[in-house]
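Hi P.,

Sorry for the delay on this. The queue was packed all week, but I finally got your sequence through. Input first:
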Amino acid sequence: MKLAIIADSTLQVLPETFTKYPVYEVALSVIFDQTTYKENIDMDLETFYKRLEAGEFATTSQPAPGDFLVVYEDLKAQGYTDILVYSVSSKVSGTYNSATQAKAMVTDVNITIVDTQQASPMAGEVISYIAEQVFDHGWTIEQAISYFEADRDNHNIMVTVDNLENLKRSGRMSSAQALFGGLLNIKPIIEMRDGLVVATHKQRTSKRALQFIVDQMVEKQPKRLVIMHALNSEKATELETMLRAVLPNVEYTSRYLTPAIGAHSGPTVVGCVWFK
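Then the structure:
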């Protein structure tokens, strides 16, 4: 058996994983004014978020089945007999369906597709760990799948946004909710729940929203926290400072959200991914 792993770009597998192991990425796209850009390929993060800050609105597009098919056929030509695919949650994107449709077009290679039920770097970091175990320590495909499923409840994302406009325009929040939320200075707390992006709580100010996230992390007592933001580095620093004051022994890192996620959340998003 010769195995390769594929992940879509929203899952944010660690960059070093792609250089060290046979792990490949299929990109989602963002669209500005009818021009399509593949994330991580055609437009860098800073350019993307600065365009959002300037008032432009972006939509997103899942990979076409043909995008997966090209990678499947290339790996087959390289002699790979098995391919393990990790996809962003099928409840928020058609990426899983595209990967599945492409699978039906390929013969003589075993393709297993995992619906991660997630949409953030929390999945990518777990996939990077799985790749290490598979390629350095001999894990089987079954072990890779079962580990991801068993670990799913041990991490999640919790973020907030200052500006509700992108959530409204992307359909993640109704116009009425955005209007009244803006008038009342309400900041939603957003998490992944059962594969969906859900506003689980509401706070009246940005400061209270950050404090709510801190309080939740104190309750969860994570081993590691990844501070997530768009270009909101000032708020990201503020949140990390608040967290370090009450959780000094936690391991901290920081990452940007990908454009395919940031298109919906907007440039003011800030929060963290927590790992037990």
